[in-house]
């Protein structure tokens, strides 16, 4: 290591570890009366938020929580959850955001694996825990979350109801300083094989992710996504990568926040309209459900900016959004990356185009955000050319990537092979540094010695006017190794045949966008495409079903 | 310290120290062809910037620079200087930005104190160094900076001319990783007494300052000051607190940058017009000079946003700017604070007021930016009320404050007394968290047992239509302890008497803004008010002269 010069601070200078408590300094200072809304139920101010975080810290401490303990939360997307985002790590404990969409068996697996000490659980999820009660190993007590302050009877060992405990708790907590590398949060990422794996993020990492996100999203040239007049509503769950970390960034900036609770499409649209929401993040599936509601037809959405992630933003969805005035952007990242790696980056000249013509730019995976190193590499780890054609695995370095999987040393080392985090995504990179994800490494269809992107094919099939959605997987083929097989869902009242879709795809062959051999010979028209708990197409299941 | 949980990374995970090289990742990626302009001389792209930084690193290494060495720069505000901002710390050396406005004796003092190894010096400043040549103790060699590639003959030991050395250097340098607490930059702050004191900032601190600044300035509700369509031109020198750190933030965002070279008012206005500059930072003195030019009368300045610092933004200056369409903001900080502590923060409803009516909000010191802890305290270190009236010393904590003074342990401990950095500024804080600096502690006029702010009085005197500027100091008084004494400069062709100014001040007494005893009985009308090398009123000199 280079012999640089490091000077000691003055004897009594304040050492400044990066801690989540610092993310709570500026928002309430910028705007103490700014609102935080819980659906159509209740609202309070940033000043209230601060007091409630102090009360929660006291309530948790009263319930026995110590620094280093793990506190799990099972809740809908609520201001309560936001309070947990701050209070739990701020006392030095670890916030475990439980994926409530997992099976009871998977949930109890993650709780035992994370060694949860205390669980905050909404009454709606009590039956899940009660059903696996005897398998829960480390939990000492439960705190019940309710929307109407009347907690249900439960066979679990309940310390009491959240609001009642907060009401009794002292209003001030002296949040300590500690090592910035202390674990702040953990949650489990589910692949299609094996047990869920626990990723974790330190205080330092979450502070840096928040600062990096605030700068990169605020500097958006179309509209700064996070500024004092913004109104934020998450539409990806808070249990999943801290709702992409945006609640931290929104709180840092002191902007209005709307928490929807449950993801009911009519409710979400109603909240958009009532609060003039300007910024959300969303997965394509939920976006499609919102766009299919009656009420969206009468909404003015020209000021709604949506970062789309989870799975690829298709041209079809982006076009349909543009017709409603919605500005969509691609956001790219994953559970392991905290998650932000890249976003759509529109240049001033791009924005002069009509919104419909910007679609092809918005569906690209975008340009890596500040502080992120990104590369595409071949199987030996060597970079492939940035020519928009060559495909490689996306690898990354950044100050906010999970450093391993909890208690899974070997898998952590595999993730970090060669000192870069391996995303498992295959992408090309254009000379202007724009990344385009082509597929998951395991979903790429290897046909006739070439790599065929299942995502590209899904995207093109989805552009057929009768098609609602498509999933393409590789199936074994004696001659070609693999061939693409498509599952297609149609829009209500629409019809199309295999030949119609093939004819639709032929035009892209004619334009040189794809090769002739990319057109699938096999296609099933289905009512539903199997999805994972986080709304991604479950290709493992599809492949298994096709066997 | 709380027993939190710290998990080790995977064996081969990439440890991510925060280093200045990471600030250079995103700008060239967002916009490789974006321009960096040197006055009306030359321009190049971000891609060129990256290559030149690599070449400079090689040229410096060829000249013998090692990690841990100190490399001083004496230049005008140029893209060369920007290259030094990156290349010198990126090789692990320390950038010493020399204040070229100091006396030759002070300059040689700072060079010896910082133990400079190599000096990059513009030919315009050669005579300064030649005049003190025999007193320079540690410098091994000089690199000459010129604007026309023909270096002057010099008695100094010159390695060669900058452009020639870059031309010969290899185009790629492998910038190493090292401890993020390594010193990256140093410069000297001049008080009115004693020798200049060296402050210093680590890689970690500069990265965090940049990220904090990018978020807080981008989230400005009026216009994000740093976004891809912004055009940035510094109007406070790069040797002074890294031009407030904005060159790092602008480079991170990939925005167009215009470096003016010398601060000639007509040139600055010409550059504003030619490049449609949207964002600058400036001290009041230079702003007044620019506003006094002929050419500004024909400029469209409605898109120019200026952060004013160094000394207070007066209502008079802000009003005059508003008449030209210029949007001014107060920025607050100091050499010791890297510098950003607070800025004007306008709420959406404030912006609905006509620009002229926003002045009273813009002249306030503003609200502390994200990640900054700020307090106002009495002489015992206890917080005083945030009622807009009570005055206390501003103390701060943040991740980017100098940790001491170089080789001045005792002064460093005084700066950090009680674990907070003491700014030496006296301020009040309103219930809405808005800070208003009232004075320097040493400039407060103690009269009849009360604290009278010299800045308040200067501000009110400056609002007299005939007055160009004012300086107020305390002079000893047998009865009252001290009484205010005013130095006043008048606008060209204007006239005013002591009685006129007193009558003007009486109206503020009548309105209850100030007390009757605040009106000075003593006033000198002068041609010039003594200023320090960085353009602040030199009150020490005024007090000495009045003795």
From TrEMBL, chains A, B:
Which SUPFAM superfamilies does this chain map to?
Acetyl-CoA synthetase-like
Ranges for domain AMP-dependent synthetase/ligase: 31-406
A biological process term (GO) from this entry: fatty acid metabolic process
Q: Which UniProt keywords apply?
A: Fatty acid metabolism, Ligase, Lipid metabolism
Q: Name one Pfam family in it.
A: AMP-binding
This protein's source sits in the domain of life called: Bacteria
**Where is each AMP-binding enzyme C-terminal domain found?**
457-536
**GO terms for MF:** ligase activity
The record's section on InterPro entries has: AMP-bd_C, AMP-bd_C_sf, AMP-dep_synth/lig_dom, ANL_N_sf
Task: Tell me which family the UniProt entry assigns to this protein.
Answer: Belongs to the ATP-dependent AMP-binding enzyme family.
Protein name according to UniProt: Medium-chain-fatty-acid--CoA ligase
Q: Taxonomic lineage of this organism?
A: Bacteria, Pseudomonadati, Pseudomonadota, Gammaproteobacteria, Pseudomonadales
């Amino acid at each position: 290591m280079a012999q640089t010069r490091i000077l000691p601070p003055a004897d009594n200078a304040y050492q400044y570890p990066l801690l989540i408590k610092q993310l709570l300094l500026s928002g309430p200072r910028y705007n103490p009366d700014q609102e935080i809304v819980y659906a159509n139920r209740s609202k309070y101010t940033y000043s209230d938020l601060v007091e409630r975080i102090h009360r929660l810290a006291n309530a948790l401490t009263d319930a026995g929580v110590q620094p280093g303990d793990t506190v799990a939360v099972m809740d809908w997307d609520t201001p309560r959850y936001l309070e947990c985002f701050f209070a739990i790590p701020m006392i030095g404990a670890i916030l475990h955001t439980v994926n409530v969409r997992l099976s009871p068996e998977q949930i109890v697996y993650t709780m035992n694996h994370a060694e949860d000490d205390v669980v905050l659980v909404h009454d709606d999820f009590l039956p899940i825990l009660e059903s696996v009660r005897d398998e829960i190993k480390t939990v000492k007590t439960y705190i019940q979350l309710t929307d109407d302050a009347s907690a249900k009877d439960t066979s679990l060992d309940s310390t009491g109801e959240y609001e009642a405990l907060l009401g009794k708790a002292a209003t001030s907590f002296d949040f300590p300083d500690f090592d910035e590398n202390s674990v702040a949060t953990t949650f489990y990422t589910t692949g299609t094989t094996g047990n869920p794996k626990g990723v974790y993020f330190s205080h330092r990492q979450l502070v840096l992710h928040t600062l990096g996100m605030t700068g990169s999203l605020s500097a958006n040239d179309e509209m700064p996504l996070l500024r004092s007049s913004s109104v934020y509503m998450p539409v990806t769950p808070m249990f999943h990568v801290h709702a992409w970390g945006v609640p931290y960034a929104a709180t840092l900036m002191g902007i209005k926040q709307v928490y929807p609770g449950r993801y009911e499409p009519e409710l979400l649209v109603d909240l958009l309209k009532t609060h003039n929401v300007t910024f959300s993040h969303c997965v394509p599936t939920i976006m499609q459900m919102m766009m299919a509601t009656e009420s969206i037809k009468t909404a003015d959405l020209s000021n709604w900016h949506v970062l789309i992630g989870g799975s690829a933003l298709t041209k079809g969805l982006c076009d349909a959004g543009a017709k409603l005035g919605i500005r969509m952007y691609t956001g790219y990242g994953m559970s392991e990356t905290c998650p932000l790696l890249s976003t759509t980056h529109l240049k001033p000249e791009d924005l002069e185009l009509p919104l419909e013509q910007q679609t092809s730019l918005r569906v690209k995976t975008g340009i890596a955000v500040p502080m992120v190193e990104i590369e595409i590499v071949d199987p030996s780890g060597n970079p492939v050319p940035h020519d928009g054609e060559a495909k490689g695995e996306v690898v990354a370095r950044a100050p906010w990537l999970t450093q391993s999987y909890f208690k899974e040393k070997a898998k952590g080392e595999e993730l970090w092979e060669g000192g870069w985090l391996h995303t498992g995504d295959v992408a090309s990179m254009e000379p202007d540094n724009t990344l385009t994800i082509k597929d998951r490494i395991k979903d790429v269809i290897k046909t006739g010695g070439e790599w065929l992107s299942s995502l590209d094919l899904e995207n093109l099939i989805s552009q057929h006017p009768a098609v609602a959605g498509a999933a393409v997987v590789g199936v074994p083929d004696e001659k070609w190794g693999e061939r693409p097989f498509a599952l297609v869902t149609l829009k209500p009242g629409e019809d199309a045949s295999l030949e119609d879709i093939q004819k639709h795809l032929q035009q892209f062959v004619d334009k040189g966008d794809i090769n002739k051999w990319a057109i699938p010979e096999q296609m099933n028209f289905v009512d539903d495409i199997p999805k994972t708990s986080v709304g991604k197409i479950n290709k493992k299941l599809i492949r298994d079903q096709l066997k």
